[in-house]
Design brief:
Elements: H1 24-36, H2 60-65, E1 68-73, E2 76-82, H3 92-95, H4 130-142, E3 145-148, E4 153-158, H5 162-169, E5 181-187, E6 193-203, E7 206-211, H6 216-226, E8 234-237, E9 242-248, H7 252-257, E10 274-279, E11 282-287, E12 296-302, H8 306-317, E13 323-324, H9 327-336
Parallel strand pairs: 3-13
Antiparallel strand pairs: 1-2, 3-9, 4-7, 4-8, 5-6, 6-7, 9-12, 10-11, 11-12
Helix pairs in contact: 4-9
């Protein structure tokens, strides 16, 4: 009230961490779940199963069939990591419980799979998935992997005043040429980082903005509040219309070259640029940028084409031993690359510098 905004990061209690998906029924189930876990041990990276699955990308079933262990962010199901085999299961000895089906005060496992198997153990040390996430990182570093990032928050900003307005609200310059990409930050009054956006210029006075899926309501709320009232800027949310598949790793170019007519060489397709390409019969905006730190492209596509693109990429990538990987591997690799993340390394309490 004194300074006009909080001086400490309040994201953990910000109501905008939820969206329209949080209906009364959803809240009821999550409240009951929270109450039943009041006196249990709360572990890092714990994923609870109440009111799930709710929002799923088209490739959800394909990822599930490949062994995905899902987490939830802003209602979306995202693969956290992948089981090493179809019959993978933790034993009661591995869980240190005589009867893991009982609800114990020290319950240390996530929600069982549909068939009752327990595949993830919570821990303050290295959990059972540590080794498998490490294998995913190694595979992407050496070969090629596929990641579903459809939960990204996405919107289109256009209009005669779009460029000037975006220059005003963001730190960093907007891309000048069509097809160029900029990484920009929305700052607080004291210079802390409120939000981070990838901005892709698609046409004169037209920009495609991508930010963290977990903070869609938060980020878009600020955009709409800061938008000029004279109609010179139009903001359209496109999160649920656009899917995102990330192909990353040293063999990613080899995979995509089998599917597109576009020249993907370094000379023709530079870092921080994007182009509309064909992927088999489908089309996608291919952005040469990712949060992994390896050679790769984000394929932003009409969500109704996702399964076709997924199948094409997996089929073309079989020659190069392509495998899916999850958010936890991505998080490890982005740390290795020193890519900062909101609200961890960046928040209103810390600047980007």
């Amino acid at each position: 009230m004194v300074d006009g905004e909080p001086t400490v990061d309040m994201m953990g209690v910000d109501p905008r961490r939820f969206g329209p998906y949080a209906t009364r029924g959803y809240l009821k189930e999550k409240n009951e779940e929270a109450y039943s876990n009041v006196f249990t041990t709360h572990y890092p990276d714990e994923e609870r199963g109440g009111a799930r699955p709710l929002k799923t990308a088209p490739c959800y079933d394909r990822m599930k069939a490949l062994g995905a262990v899902f987490g939830s962010v802003y209602g979306w199901e995202r693969p956290n990591w992948f089981m090493p085999s179809a019959d993978y299961e933790l034993t009661s000895e591995e869980l240190n419980q005589s009867d893991p089906s009982k609800v114990l005060l020290n319950k240390n496992h996530s929600k069982p799979l549909d068939d009752g198997r327990i595949v993830e153990k919570n821990s303050f040390r290295r959990s059972n998935y540590f080794e498998h996430v490490g294998n995913e990182c190694k595979h992407v570093n050496e070969k090629v992997g596929l990641l579903d990032m459809s939960a990204f928050a996405k919107c289109v900003v256009k209009g005669p005043g779009a460029e000037a307005w975006l220059e005003y609200i963001f730190a960093n310059k907007m891309p000048k040429a069509i097809g160029r990409i900029s990484l920009v930050h929305m700052l607080s009054l004291n210079g802390g980082v409120r939000a981070e956006f990838t901005v892709y210029k698609t046409a004169p006075q037209s920009y495609y903005l991508v930010s963290a899926g977990a903070f869609e309501a938060h980020d878009h709320d600020y955009l709409f509040k800061l938008a000029p009232k004279d109609g010179s800027v139009n903001i359209q949310r496109v999160t649920t219309q656009t899917g995102v598949l990330v192909v990353a790793g040293p063999k990613s170019r080899d995979v995509l070259e089998k599917l597109t007519d576009t020249d993907l060489s370094n000379e023709s397709f530079k870092w921080l640029t994007g182009k509309k390409i064909n992927v088999g019969y489908a089309t996608a905006e291919a952005l040469r940028v990712n949060f992994v730190g390896e050679l790769g492209w984000e394929l932003h596509h009409p969500i109704e084409m996702q399964n076709y693109i997924f199948d094409q990429v997996m089929e073309a990538g079989a020659e190069f031993d392509i495998k899916p990987f999850g958010i936890r591997a991505m998080d490890s690799m982005r740390l290795e690359k020193s890519y900062r993340l909101i609200p961890r390394e960046m928040s209103i309490e810390y600047s980007a510098f």
